[in-house]
Write a structure and sequence with these properties.
Structural class of chain A: mainly beta
Largest sheet of chain B: 10 strands, mixed
Order of helices and strands of chain B: HEEEEEEEEEEEEEEEEHEE
CATH topology of the largest domain in chain A: Jelly Rolls
Strand order of the largest sheet of chain A: 2-5-10-7-8-16-15-12
Strand content of chain B: 35-45%
Shape of chain A: elongated
Number of helices of chain A: 2
Shape of chain B: globular
CATH class of the largest domain in chain B: Mainly Beta
CATH topology of the largest domain in chain B: Jelly Rolls
Number of strands of chain B: 18
Radius of gyration of chain B: 21 Å
Radius of gyration of chain A: 30 Å
Strand content of chain A: 35-45%
Number of strands of chain A: 32
Oligomer: heterodimer
Structural class of chain B: mainly beta
CATH architecture of the largest domain in chain A: Sandwich
Number of domains of chain B: 2
Chain lengths: 493, 283
């Protein structure tokens, strides 16, 4: 047998020599056509990092709460060999940071992973907590082809994790070898430990695509105005694994080719700053957005009803003693919130946050400037608050409250929105008064649907303490559920 | 240039020949998978529509008419002869298992047999099949012994399962025989696991060579099990009877649920299809 093997070897060598000789006679492909190929090393971590950067672990930003102390290796635990990676997940209040996570990056120019079909590793936990993210393709440089799985539950013995590669032909120069992120969401704040071993890319042959999807596999419909950037979200795939289980992965939009069936409604697809895929609505009509990965149609679609130009509220013209709470025309005072989400009685959604330039609707004016608009939905009551973190506001020099409201549903007799002004919130005794906008007034809208109200402060009986206004309430008691709000300001008429 | 290629290919041929020469020395590589080559029955499924009625019966119902509701295994499907469940298209037989309410069952599927149309004692039975996926999906390519007009019952008639497969183990098939004192859970069986591939990703060849004293099982080019009367004696402490010396007929089906696979779960995608490229019998 040995002899045979040697002969085989010799034959191969001979063949190799012949091939070399022959191929040297052949014309080389000219340089521009010569695609650079990158190394194909599949190993990321076996008993030590393999071909990774010197720092090995590159943490998420500690300024964002990432704990750099929780990462290490452990020579007392290994699925195979002598060592594994040990992650100590901190409690949320850990002074070194409340979660642990980061990446491993290839030390060179990247690897050609096109010959593999999955990233695999072995995983064991001190308890059956869940790890919020594992994946690859994140390199903190381009982050072009990230793939991840979410909320992977640990086992207290070693288990193999398989993360399928969606379209490996895209990964000819990949630096992002591994990414993870773990906090204590699944344990109610109790820290835990987990170990990772034998991280490598493999050609398993046993992962089978079930489907790619966009919009989480649903056929969804949205009404969008011209100029608005519409996001296409919920991108992923489901694979069947050899053990009969399926694995859902979240995948980067860069794996997808997006298509619209009406180019009069949607622009070319691009990306926003968060890396999400967007299309700018360019006109009125219907467009159906679908997507493919490697010529395989993804399930799910987004039907966009282009609504035409956005119906902006009238541009405010007041100049006298303006104290603005929400408007793009004036500088607004700091607010605590545009929706306090007062549990358990409040149902109102929308208006989240305190940044008046980042609320519900951003509709560009013709000149490209953004018109920010609050969209309250499921309205029963909601307030704009100026207290606690920010000061109560002084409107004593003004005599009128201006509000633009656009009711986004049909108005029944008996519908109303009551505006209530409350003084002294968080700073002393509270007092205030209210003014009710009835159905007749709500129907008195302009062509764009806006009701522009200039309400004398004298119409708020009881609102006498005007130097310390703390909240402006919108109360409908569920009679009106869906409204846009713009240009909320006090001024002297 | 042409010359060079010629010389190269000549050399490659030489090399291949010498490799064949060498590998034949290795016992593992000389496995004789099949020996019978005289084709006596074939369906290549080249005619679109209902499967050829001169070869195939389409069995309908849930087994109640046969006196075995749930086909003796608590299976959940009702078999139909509808195109939705069985048809020939583009060169393949398509058996479709679907989730739908039909005649009191929650699932439909199809079962084809050659009973009374093609029955054969001994030979090489082979089919090229792409299998479905998912928990509770139970396709099979198998043989049952002729029941001599109902005078013989199972397991006395004998059963040769050339290929059984569970949709939640997509890398494994089973080769099994059932007979008196070795049936059901006590059947004589062996798993074959495919490496670096799965049976629902493409077509694979499943076959047996059945001779008076052995049933040899193979998948693609791998012989993985040989069952002989001696095997039966050993496995049953001498109580089992070798009943594989009578004519048997061919069955192709997908069962849904039942004792072996368990019921489909929320991750089982319907419809599921078994594609059969051909069925051939040699002697």
């Amino acid at each position: 047998m040995k002899k045979i093997k040697f002969m085989y070897l010799k034959t191969t060598l001979l063949l190799g020599l012949f091939l070399l000789l022959f191929s040297s006679c052949e014309r080389e492909i000219t340089d521009p056509n010569n695609l650079a190929t990158f190394q194909t090393n599949p190993n990321v971590f076996l008993d030590a990092p393999d071909g990774l950067t010197d720092e090995f672990f590159i943490s998420f930003d500690p300024a964002g709460g990432a704990n750099t102390e929780g990462f290490g290796t452990d020579d007392n635990e290994a699925y195979e060999g002598t060592s594994s990676i040990r992650i100590d997940v901190p409690a949320p209040n850990d002074p070194n940071g409340g979660f642990v996570g980061g990446i491993f990056r290839d030390r060179g120019e990247g690897r050609d992973l096109s010959g593999y079909d999955a990233l695999t590793f072995w995983l064991k936990g001190s308890t059956t907590a869940s790890v919020s993210l594992f994946g690859f393709g994140t390199d903190f440089m381009e982050d072009k082809f990230p793939v991840s799985i979410a909320n992977k539950q640990l086992s207290t013995d070693w288990r193999k994790v398989i993360i399928p590669i969606p379209d490996a032909s895209r990964l000819t120069q990949e630096r992002g070898m591994f990414v993870f992120s773990a906090g204590t969401e699944s344990t109610g704040g109790v820290g835990f430990t987990f170990w990772i071993d034998e991280i490598k890319f493999e050609k398993l042959g046993t992962v089978k695509l079930q489907k790619y999807f966009i919009q989480n596999g649903n056929d969804e419909e949205v009404n969008v105005f011209t100029g608005v950037n519409q996001r296409v979200t919920g991108l992923g795939a489901i694979y069947d694994l050899a053990d009969g289980q399926s694995q859902t992965i979240t995948i980067s939009p860069n794996y997808f080719d997006f298509k619209s069936d009406n180019l009069n409604v949607t622009s070319a697809f691009g990306f926003n700053e968060a890396g999400e895929v967007i299309t700018t609505i360019t006109g009125q009509g219907e467009a159906k957005v679908t997507a493919e990965v490697a010529n395989v149609l993804a399930t799910g679609s987004l039907s966009i009803n282009g609504q035409g130009d956005f119906p902006h509220a009238p541009i405010p013209t007041a100049t006298n003693n303006v104290v603005s709470i929400f408007s793009d025309v004036y500088s607004s005072v700091p607010v605590r919130h545009y929706n306090g989400f007062f549990a358990p009685y409040q149902t109102t959604e929308g208006g989240a946050g305190s940044d008046s330039y980042n609320l519900d609707i951003q509709a560009p004016f013709a000149n490209g400037d953004l018109d920010n608009i609050i969209n309250y939905t499921k309205l029963n009551f909601v307030s704009i608050g100026m207290y606690e973190a920010v000061s109560n506001i002084d409107v004593s020099a003004t005599n009128t409250l201006h509000i633009d409201i656009n009711v986004r549903e049909s108005i029944d007799n008996g519908d109303f929105i009551r505006i209530e002004l409350e003084s002294g919130t968080g700073s002393g005794a509270t007092s205030g008064g209210s003014f009710t906008i009835n159905a007749t007034s709500l129907r008195n809208a302009d062509a764009n649907g806006w009701v522009s109200l200039d309400i004398p402060l004298t119409s708020f009986p009881g609102f006498n303490s005007r130097t310390n206004l703390g909240q402006v309430f919108f109360i409908s008691d569920n009679t009106v559920a869906d409204i846009w709000v713009d240009n909320v300001y006090f001024y002297t008429n | 240039m042409k010359n060079i290629y010629k010389r190269k290919s000549q050399f490659l041929v030489l090399l291949c020949l010498s490799l064949v020469g060498f590998t034949s020395c290795d016992s593992d590589e000389t496995q004789t998978v099949t020996t019978l080559t005289n084709l006596i029955m074939q369906d290549e499924f080249d005619v679109n529509g209902t499967p050829d009625p001169t070869t195939w019966n389409l069995v309908e119902g849930d087994g109640t008419a046969e006196g075995i509701p749930g086909w003796g295994n608590n299976e959940l499907q009702t078999y139909t002869a509808r195109t939705e469940n069985v048809t020939v298209q583009n060169g393949v037989l398509i058996i479709t298992a679907d989730k739908e309410t039909y005649q009191g069952s929650g699932y439909t599927s199809a079962r084809l047999t050659t009973k009374g149309l093609f029955q054969q004692q001994y030979g090489r039975f082979e089919a090229r099949i792409k299998l479905p996926t998912g928990k509770g999906i139970w396709p099979a390519f198998w043989l049952l012994g002729d029941d001599e007009n109902g005078t013989l019952s199972w397991p006395q008639v004998g059963e040769i399962d050339i290929m059984e497969y569970l949709g939640d183990s997509p890398t494994v098939v089973l080769g099994t025989i059932h007979g008196p004192n070795y049936s059901g859970a006590n059947a004589i069986s062996k798993e074959y696991e495919i490496l670096n591939d799965r049976f629902d990703n493409g077509f694979h060849v499943f076959g047996i060579e059945w001779s008076p004293n052995a049933i040899n099982y193979y998948v693609d080019g791998d012989l993985y099990q040989s069952i002989t009367p001696e095997t039966v004696r050993e496995k049953t402490n001498g109580t089992g009877e070798w009943v594989f010396n009578r004519p048997f007929y061919i069955i192709l089906n997908i069962a849904v649920g039942g004792n072996l696979p368990g019921s489909p779960n929320e991750n089982t995608v319907f419809p599921q299809r078994m594609l059969v490229d051909y069925v051939r019998v040699y002697n």
